[in-house]
Each structure stands twice: as structure tokens, then as C-alpha cells.
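sry for the spam today, last one i promise. C-alpha cells for design, 229 residues
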């Protein structure tokens, strides 16, 4: 390469020099001519190295690591240029992650709420758990799908006979769903997690105002005066 030829030129120069440092006689003239030829060739190779071609004028491939770094840099730039979706209430404070369980009779109601950004869909973030994996609508981030979860069948209670309510005895359902929500990690992304019934008239901004004094305080509350509400 250019470095090897430059070394050869230096060696020829040393061989052609006498004690006084000048070229001497016919041997010196021949060495001088050889030196000029070697230096010229070294310069030619060095110039080719600079313009990215070899001795035959062929284009040389860029080093692999440089090429990979360039591609990675371009890929990173493209990623940075892509805007991140932000939901309408993503920056509300305090933050609420709201979720509900949807059964077949709740589908149209849930879809209507999502379309109108009402109820749980006016929270910072939200999820709908269902036995079916389905699209329930769209928001600022694209399609909104349910979280599919196998759920047990439950019966209605009879107040004063076999239960303290005449509604569905759905504690086994919600225990499974609470586990699913906690495992998702969503509960740690907002200040509060809210379990909502699909048919509840719910105003997240009002609840947020009530909860604001309790930010950073571990707590549990219900929406009525019983059971710690």
C-alpha cells in the first residue's frame, strides 16, 4: 500500500545518500531516478486511497463497521422523526388508569363511550377486559382492542338469602381481572387505578379533583359509603 511504498522510498533515499548528504556519481544518479519513480508511485497510490479507488481505478467498498454505523444512524433518525401518539387526556393530573370488564350486553355501550371519549375513555389511560379479543373503536393511537381474558361463569345473588346483593356475584371475575391489570404494569404508570362499571355515569375529572390531595399516599376507596368508601 501507500505506507509500504513510502517506506521503500525512504530506504532508497538513504541508500543513495553519501556521508555529506548529497547524491554522488552515477550510482547516485541512478538511485535518484529510482527514488523519483518510487515516490511518484507512492503519491499515485495515496491519491487513489483518498478518492476511494484502488490501483486499477475500481471503487473500493467502505469498511463494514462504518457502513453499519451509518445505517444505524439513519434508522435512529427515522425513529426519532416518527411522532409518538398522545391520548387526549394523557397529561391530566393526577393520572388515572381506568378499566372495566365488558360482557356481551355491554359492547354497544362501551363502543359509544369510546367514540364520545366519555366515561373511562376520558382517563389518562384505559383498558377493557373481555372474554373476546375484539376492536371496540379507535383513539389517537389507532385501534383500541380489548384485553382477552378467560372468565368464570357467575350467578346472581338473592339479597338476604344467599348474598348481600341481588346483583351478579362477580367477585371471582374481578379477582382475575385485577390480577391481569396489575400484571400489565399499567397501575404503576398513573397515580390512581380506577375500576369502572360500563354502565356507570363517570366523570374522571371530578374524581381526579377528589383524589388529588391523596397523591403519593397508598389508599383504597369505593364509590359509596359502605366498605370503606
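last one done:
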Amino acid at each position: 500500500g501507500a505506507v509500504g511504498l513510502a517506506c521503500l522510498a525512504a530506504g532508497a533515499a538513504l541508500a543513495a545518500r553519501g556521508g555529506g548528504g548529497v547524491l554522488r556519481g552515477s550510482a547516485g544518479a541512478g538511485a535518484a531516478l529510482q527514488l523519483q519513480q518510487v515516490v511518484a508511485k507512492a503519491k499515485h497510490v495515496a491519491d487513489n486511497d483518498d478518492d476511494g479507488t484502488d490501483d486499477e481505478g475500481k471503487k473500493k467498498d467502505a469498511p463494514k463497521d462504518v457502513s453499519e454505523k451509518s445505517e444505524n444512524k439513519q434508522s435512529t433518525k427515522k425513529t426519532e422523526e416518527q411522532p409518538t401518539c398522545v391520548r387526549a387526556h394523557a397529561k391530566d393530573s393526577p393520572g388515572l388508569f381506568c378499566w372495566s370488564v365488558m360482557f356481551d350486553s355491554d359492547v354497544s355501550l362501551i363502543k359509544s363511550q369510546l367514540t364520545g371519549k366519555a366515561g373511562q375513555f376520558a382517563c389518562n389511560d384505559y383498558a377493557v377486559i373481555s372474554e373476546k379479543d375484539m376492536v371496540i373503536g379507535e383513539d389517537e393511537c389507532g385501534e383500541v382492542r380489548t384485553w382477552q381474558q378467560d372468565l368464570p361463569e357467575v350467578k346472581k345473588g338473592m339479597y338476604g338469602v344467599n348474598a348481600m346483593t341481588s346483583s351478579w356475584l362477580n367477585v371471582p371475575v374481578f379477582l382475575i381481572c385485577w390480577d391481569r391489570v396489575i400484571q400489565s404494569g399499567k397501575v404503576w404508570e398513573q397515580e390512581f387505578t380506577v375500576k369502572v362499571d360500563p354502565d356507570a355515569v363517570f366523570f374522571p375529572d371530578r374524581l381526579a379533583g377528589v383524589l388529588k390531595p391523596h397523591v403519593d399516599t397508598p389508599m383504597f376507596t369505593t364509590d359509596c359509603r359502605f366498605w370503606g368508601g
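The chain is about 40% helix and 10% strand. ok im logging off now
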